[in-house]
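Intended use. Records like the one below are meant for learning the mapping from a protein sequence to its folded structure. Do not use them to infer anything beyond what is encoded.
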Amino acid sequence: MNIRDALPSSLLPAPGSPPVEWLVHDGLVGYEDAVAAMESRVARIAAGEAGECVWLVEHPPLYTAGTSAKAEDLLSSDLPVHQTGRGGQFTYHGPGQRVAYVMLDLRRRREDVRVFVASLEAWIIATLDRFNIRGERRDDRVGVWVRRPEKAEGAEDKIAAIGIRVRRWVTFHGISLNVEPDLSRFSGIVPCGIAETRYGVTSLVDLGLPVTMDDADAALRATFEEVFGAVQPGDGRP
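Structure written out for the chain above:
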């Protein structure tokens, strides 16, 4: 697929910009620790003291509540719940789900949040295409969806979620791609506030693909470069 055809406008950095630092964390990262690390890196990016960064992590099982979350959409108290400044409603994070925290300086790219969100969607869709999965965006539902006609007429499952925040034109939070998480955990919330039964949640493995986290990471990195520009491996945490 030609990713450029799916983008409303380019978010490639200004010519001569350094590559984005690409960090992959082994093991689980606590949610509050991740947010603190992001906050610090974003402040340094905004001040011109650090470069852009993408940080790939997995979290222990937990729910997060975005700025639009409704209390009635939390159906279970079995897991910790973290209030967060990202957009969106409730979602689940846990082992087997790849979370990509995207810290980009839109001042060097394009100061347009809608274009940034569309570019994140295009990135996910291109990643899924590497595994011959057709991911689709929806005007009325944020995230990336997969049609499931074998389940019911009009059925669609979300395979990736998006929740971002922008401060001084520097982005943070990001995306989550379901590789092989425990999908039963999503039953403890109304995911992203969507209660209609024809809309569910899926993963790469749930779709019958023997994809490892390393496989997903390689695809995410290759397609990120097509949408956002070159990366270079980093070492450690943001």
